[in-house]
Amino acid sequence: MSTSSVNSIPKLKLLDFSLRLSVIPLSVGTIWLTVTNQQENSSYGDLKFINFNGLKYMVCISAICGGYALLAAIASWIRCLVSKAWFFFVSDQIVAYLILTSGAAVSEILYLAYNGDKTVTWSEACNSYGKFCSRMKVALILHGLALCCFIVLSLISAFRAFSVFQPPVSSKEVEG
Questions:
Q1: Distance between CA 158 and CA 117 in Å, rounded?
Q2: Which of 62, 87, 141, 146 has a CA between 20 and 30 Å from the CA of residue 26?
Q3: pLDDT band of 129, cuts 50, 70, 90
Q4: Cα–Cα distance between 41 and 45 in angstroms, integer?
Q5: Model pTM?
Q6: Tens digit of each residue's pLDDT (9 = 90 or more) over 54-84
Q7: Cβ proximity of 39 and 131 under 8 Å
Q8: Half-sphere exposure of 21 (CA within 13 A, CB side)
Q9: Residue 40 is inside which H or E element, if any?
């Protein structure tokens, strides 16, 4: 390992730990905004998060994400677990993809709520449920920020997992 890569390891560990800790309030905020989100409308009835499978999926994934981030932050300081770079690499990838899928599901719900679907004669719901839609947008933004954290964490864990290997030797180096 070069001197610059040795000096960057404590900085990477601190960045890794900070990102994992920052995911926890983002996940809790997403869950709280989604679960407490409801709006009544005298013309169309009540709207609650429990009525949408995509929102329930996002709440579950946010709970998994926050729990994993907490456990991984704690584990990042336990020496015997830090050497398990492959575990963190695979786990960070899985959580990032789960966040991406749940964010896509909620994005579709919000898109339909704001724009409707003229081909099946669905009208825009956010005209009647503006507060509900606004809170879901904020929850989706928090969820997206958690995704950004996990993208960076995936890059860090990939660096840790693959930096233990030596680069391949070219045929010119073997001959020389």
A1: 41
A2: 87
A3: confident
A4: 5
A5: 0.83
A6: 999 999 999 999 999 999 998 877 766 556 7
A7: yes
A8: 9
A9: strand 38-41
Residue owning tokens 């579950």: 60
Q: Strands 38-41 and 45-48, how do they pair?
A: antiparallel
Going from the C-alpha of 140 to that of each of 5, 12, 26, the distances in angstroms are 36, 28, 10
Distance in angstroms (rounded) separating the CA atoms of residues 139 and 26: 9
Greatest mean pLDDT range, 108-117, 118-127, 164-173 = 108-117
The amino acid at 166: Q
DSSP state of 67: H
Q: Is 142 left (phi over 0), alpha (psi -120 to 50) or beta?
A: alpha
Residue type, 126: C
Structural contact between residues 20 and 66, judged by C-beta atoms closer than 8 angstroms: no
111-128 exposure pattern, b = at least 16 Cβ within 10 A, e = fewer: eebeebeeeeeeeebbeb
Distance CA 16, CA 23 (A): 11
